[in-house]
């Protein structure tokens, strides 16, 4: 699903969700059609600006399934920052927090990732302080471990683990209560 309300080809968009959004709701950050996970939607202009302004460098954590047995050296390189190409220009990513993790309990992906019987996969937790286009995918490819599945797990200190449900299903929407909104501000800024 594209993280936008307007149509683009045959892709599903936020407009396809079984939820009535206010007209002034805006997605904060983007997930491409191949990514999944936490997406904030808001009509709070202060929050939107704080989270979209690159100089504020709030954190976002992704759970990343990569092809192959990821090495400690690859994790060190990712943590230090790696050179990636964005629109034909070389860019060195800011240092990131990277660690190997056990496979998280996530819902099945639709469509499923490609499966190769003789090629193992690994999972990483990657916390960024910046958000370049397809950055995590470019970073893991730069160290020789292409991304197979990418799940945004948290934005700031708000994560998918905060909800009382085991794990939201793709397309689940929950409205933040005023109490939760206050908590979000306290945790994020």
UniProtKB/TrEMBL annotation:
Q: Where is the signal peptide?
A: none
Say if the entry is tagged with keyword Isomerase: yes
- E.C. number(s) listed in UniProt: 5.4.99.-
Which GO terms fall under molecular function for this chain's record? catalytic activity, acting on RNA; pseudouridine synthase activity; RNA binding
Key word Ribosomal protein present: no
One Pfam family matching this protein: PseudoU_synth_2
InterPro entries, sorted: PsdUridine_s_RsuA/RluB/E/F_cat, PsdUridine_synth_cat_dom_sf, PsdUridine_synth_RsuA/RluA, PsdUridine_synth_RsuA/RluB/E/F, PsdUridine_synth_RsuA/RluB_CS, RsuA_PseudoU_synthase, TruA/RsuA/RluB/E/F_N
Alphabetized UniProt keyword annotations: Isomerase
Q: What class of enzyme is it?
A: isomerase
TM helices/strands, residue ranges? none
Q: Which family does it belong to?
A: Belongs to the pseudouridine synthase RsuA family.
Q: What is this protein called?
A: Pseudouridine synthase
Please name the source species: Dyadobacter soli
Q: What is the lineage of its organism?
A: Bacteria, Pseudomonadati, Bacteroidota, Cytophagia, Cytophagales
């Amino acid at each position: 699903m594209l993280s936008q309300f307007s149509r683009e080809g045959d892709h599903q968009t936020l407009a396809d969700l079984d939820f009535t959004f206010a007209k002034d709701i805006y997605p904060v950050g983007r997930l491409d059609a191949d990514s999944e996970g936490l997406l904030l939607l808001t009509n709070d202009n202060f929050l939107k600006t704080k989270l979209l302004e690159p100089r504020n460098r709030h954190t976002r954590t992704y759970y990343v399934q990569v092809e192959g047995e990821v090495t400690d050296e690859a994790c060190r390189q990712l943590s230090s920052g790696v050179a990636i190409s964005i629109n034909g220009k070389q860019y060195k990513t800011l240092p990131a927090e990277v660690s190997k993790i056990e496979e998280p309990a996530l819902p099945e992906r639709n469509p499923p990732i490609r499966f190769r019987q003789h090629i193992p996969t690994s999972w990483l937790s990657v916390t960024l302080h910046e958000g370049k286009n397809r950055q995590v995918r470019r970073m893991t490819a730069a160290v020789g471990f292409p991304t197979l599945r990418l799940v945004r797990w948290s934005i700031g200190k708000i994560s998918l683990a905060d909800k009382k449900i085991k794990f939201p299903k793709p397309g689940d929407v929950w409205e933040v209560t005023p109490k939760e909104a206050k908590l979000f501000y306290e945790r994020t800024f």
